[in-house]
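Input record (one chain):
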Amino acid sequence: MEYSQFYEEFGAPFTGRKKKRLEEFLHRMELQYDTGVEYTVNLVTQEGEIAATGSLEHNVLKCVAVDDRYQGMGLSSRVVTLLLNHANEQGEHHLFVFTKPKNIAMFSDLGFYPIIQTKDVLLMENVRDGIRQYVAQLDRPQMPVKTVGAIVANCNPFTNGHRYLIETAAAQCDALHLFVLSEDRSTFPAAVRYQLVKEGIQGIDNVILHQTSDYLISSAVFPTYFIKEQGRAEQINCELDLRIFCEYFAKELNITRRFVGTEPFCPVTSAYNREMKRILSEYHIEVVEIPRKKQDEVEISASKVRACMIEGDYDTIRRIVPESTLRYLLSDDGQKLAARMREENHKA
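The corresponding structure, as predicted from the sequence alone:
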């Protein structure tokens, strides 16, 4: 069979019977359909069978697969080319793929370069040494320093608890790198979260503020469609994220301590902290856990702020966030965000 005998089928995303057919094809390829998919390309035989497929979510390629019967015909190259063309049309030029380590040769041939590989997963990007270029341009202390620490945080939104964590960590370092997750998957937009952190840390002079770009990965971004043991997905994501931090960020910036807050509420974050201690010890990086700040004997958390926004309880919010965060929450944009949160909570 020649390539010209396949026809191209596009979905943004597929629904109904076409989605079911795609799910069944991926299942045969030992993959799962990823619910985050936004755009899909299928190559289909004249008999209506899927021969190859691939999908996109923002700038991440997902669910790329070719039926064994049609291997060696250049179908994966065609699928990826069509996905790259669509991504370029959407303004996404820097693309990533999470895949099985055994697929490194295939994606290398398609113009992707490895970032990090663990036993379970391989992360690649379509820019040679893109991560090294990104980390190399990050700000760093202007003078030599002895102790360099780091915090990676989402700050959704920035609270007095975050301020306490950062102040306490900064007091134990000559320089503290503060990374705010750049992905736009949180209730508060990435640009808002970054600005609130920037305003909230005023006066802590040895903090160097960064965005993470696409390189420090949360579970919201990490896909699990190719992982057989779904119960291990979170652990696999943790290891990938932490090894990227150690291999690139910590090495380049001479980070020897990473600070985290204790986590009494979220078992996922608590497990992440345990995994952090295990992996960072391999790189001789100390993990320092700082007890959460309390207000009236209650631990402060961003989730508490969001819950109070839904309830309209700004008296409580006023006690647990800095003035800069409160100003935003009371602004027109903050009130619009609260209204959306209440609407989504009501639908749920």
